[in-house]
Amino acid sequence: MTTRRLGIDVGGTFTDVLLHDAADGSVRLLKTATTTGDQSRGVVSGLSEICRRAGIGPEQLGAIMHGTTAATNAVLEGRGAKVGVIVNEGFRHLFHLAEAWTPGPLFGFMVYDRPAPLVGVELMAEVRGRMGAGGEEVEPLDEASVEAAVAQLVAAGAEAVTVCLLSSYANPDHERAVGAIVARVAPGLPVSLSADVLAEFREYERAVTTTMNAYVAPEMDRYLRGLRDGLDAVRAGAELQVVRSDGGLMSLDAARATPVHTMLSGPAGGVSGAAHVARLAGHERIITFDMGGTSTDVSASLDGRPQITRETKVGAFPMRVPSVAVETIGAGGGSIASVSEVTGGLRVGPESAGAVPGPACYGNGGTEATVTDANVVLGHLPPRLLGGAMTLDVDAAHAAVARVGEQLGLGVPETAQAIVRLVDENMLGALRLVTVQRGMSADTFALVPFGGAGALHANALAATLGCFPVIVPLEPGVLSALGFLVSDVRSEFSRTFIRAVADVAPGEIADRLRALGEEAAAFLDREGVAAADREVRYAADMRYHRQGYELPIAIDDLEELTLAQLGDAFTATHEQLYGFGLPGGAELVTLRAVGIGRVPAIEMPARPLGPPDAAAARTGTHPVWDGSGFRDVPTYDRDRLAPGMVLDGPAIVEQYDATTLVLAGHVAAVDQHANLLITPGGTA
Q: What is the pTM of this model?
């Protein structure tokens, strides 16, 4: 029973379900419409259906890994709790002052629409007392002011309380005392302490992260409880693990306690899955390209592992949580095409048709032209999807695109081509952001597309950037769900420790890291990870004195750690990234320990390469627009493409969860792991 593991990814349009059975190596896929309002209904429905198709009962599942957008949606849709915040005296306007930053470039600040503060001033309460930056008590905590602050927040209707006091990362005693008073004065009112959620400096980011955790906690708790109840109703008693933003896994209880760590749950799974597939194909430098129905996520992996950042944004708010480094734009298959009333120019997105009503071709009442409709008009998408279970309304797609074309004075196929080219240009900007803007040449990377629409657009993007091969996984439409199954249990523990390397006593860093390692070990105990499957990794965030950013430096061996080694490692990393080093030595900023619990790996054995002739997989032809007219293009069944087969573009490869477009002048070859590798003609 434990051999069967299920990955579930909830997207804006579809919920993807992947069932892997380690006993026979079988993989089953299912895409079902996301149920708006209560996404757990779609999750339970998809689980039940894929078990029915596999001929098993839900009770025979060994583990369930789930990526969720519940926390993110609560923020974007303003459905979180009413949070009151307790701060030091004089810091009542912490969220209003924020970072005093406006976006560029050039005159961008002139039209910047500043977002509303995360918490209104009426829900900000001040208390007297102060800790110094070194953790010393500068002013005792005034308990009477704390009681008055709690009464103020209760009267204002606060449904949860966040406590964020100065320098609590160095000494949390005042915060813990405030938390105890809140529990006494207002029993039952949830309290979040910043020292528990993020024990690091930078007051604004720490306050936002802790407040965001409290803001989404009730919604996330309702969703996870409803999901667990739904799974129990169908007798799916397997352990439910939730995917973190950094691609790791955590238990249901951990997700309820710190839901802020699930903000980028779905994108993280996709990047992990893409890195796994690319390593099997022999590529470690990859750009991942996840194009779904509502948005597109891109990320770069340099050494076969997803890059982890410790600051991300949800909406306009910065949060200091470990996350896969992903850039997101509002461009997807459901992005709506329109004509600007001001300029008369074509626009695509960020508005999306979503799952309901969806693109016009879905036949669910949608009337606005989307990227999916444009691909139908151009012939890039066949009239039937999901293995024939979904028939597209080609006439509705033509009618929707025609209405846009009338405003532009263009024909229907020309309008569709303009829509696709414009969305491609938007996505190229995101791909350049994770490569060129960071000083890396895009043509040194391979491109791994996934999501429902990624493989349709990947060849065109690679042709512009030169990032070949395009590696289309065997299951590109549900790769995020596959990524969940190859993710490890993971959590990170950190403490700010600002000290010049030259001023640190020998052994002091190792002692502090060991303490963090004990916290990581306790987490792995709670998660039930066996001792043989554990690993604790250590790192230190370092910078030059007075720099405003840090670099993470891995520490391989605490017993052999020396200050000279740490300084040299930082200098080498800084020179590698920025091309220069500075005299005077470095300083430590934050120490980290990451607890990792290994999960069983998915075995994908290589198969021998056969003959290159792909005629056995050919299913016919389909008319495709080439800029001047429609021409018949060969179509292929992905399930019948065997390792070693090679096909010339233009061609369309159809499968249950995605469609791949191979452009003229390119070839696609099937490798030993059944990946489709697209390269310029003659290099297969």
A: 0.81
